[in-house]
């Protein structure tokens, strides 16, 4: 399978925050943002693998900044690393200033998707070759994040998470 670059999976979703999508403080409801991120990440995983993909895990979500009603929100998703059948997707959330048009980073998240066949069985995906310094940094840390996610899910013994353990020694 020919390896791919993260840029080939880049997915950008831009949309408004409408009144039905806000909490009592008139900020974007967290679940709505999770759904937008899941959609963008799913398209990125599909672009990388060209297969059916399913969300295996939401590894990290940081709601650092509230996003007010009426904001223009951009969700940017890219595959940061692929393993055998799984792909880590890094998601950056940007909010656009109405007057200047400048974009400020509001949140970020990391999802894991798995490529599957028609019966739902995991299938292999292309490897990935990172290019930019940010892509390389995210690629290098992805194995530790995968191990952490598997340990938390009870699918890996902590003693087998070699690269993750090395962080603390
Ligand atoms: C995700 C799913 C396909 C994994 O199937 P499985 O039988 O556990 O298969 P495996 O154990 O071979 O795991 C497949 C890959 O997923 C990875 N994976 C599984 N759970 C994971 C987790 N919690 N975090 C990170 N990676 C995970 C495995 O490490 C493996 O990766 P690799 O092939 O790249 O090494 C299966 O659990 C599933 O279909 N879940 C439901 C998905 C779904 O419906 N999502 C929508 C949410 S409602």
From TrEMBL:
Its EC number is 3.1.2.20. Residues 7-119 form the HotDog ACOT-type domain. It is an enzyme of class 3 (hydrolase). Pfam families: 4HBT. Keywords: Hydrolase. Belongs to the acyl coenzyme A hydrolase family. This is Acyl-CoA thioesterase. It comes from Flavobacterium frigidarium.
